Amino acid sequence: LESEAFARGLSHSSLRYLSNLPRPQHLSRLRRGLDLALDTRRIGGGSTVLDLAWAGVPVLTALGGSMGSRFGTTAAQGMGLDQHGEYGGTTAGTLKGYEDALASLAGARI
User: Fold this and answer.
1) What is the pLDDT of residues 40-99, one digit of tens each?
2) Which of 49, 88, 103 minimizes the C-alpha distance to 71?
3) Which of 2, 9, 49, 51 is the most exposed place for a label (fewest CB within 10 A)?
């Protein structure tokens, strides 16, 4: 992930890896510091997608082929958070759709 991000001009400070915290501190941290979260196709974010939604952080989800990789998309759609809107997140059914949505969402935050 890092090498691809750097190859595309993102700085190291653009990526954040979060350690475990008790839930109240975790949700507070999400509200303060994230502009956009990426839920990948191969290994989905699971309940983290729900935490991000609770904290109001937009999540880009990608519909994968396994149950675990579909959780984020299913959760976002179930909450009505899958089409930009106020929440800002979206879901993508293809890799091209994921890339296009990421470019759109990232461009809106620059």
Assistant:
1) 777 777 778 888 888 888 888 777 777 776 777 777 777 776 565 444 557 777 788 888
2) 49
3) 9
Tell me how far CA of residue 21 lies from CA of 2, 29, 75, 79, in angstroms.
Answer: 23, 9, 23, 25
Contact call for residues 83 and 61 (beta carbons, < 8 A): no
d(CA 47, CA 100): 25
CA dist 15 and 18 (Å) reads 10
CA angle 28, 105, 40 (to 5 degrees): 75
Q: Can you read off the two tokens belonging to residue 86?
A: 């106020």
| Angstrom distance (rounded) from CA 15 to CA 37 | 10
The DSSP symbol for 94 reads S
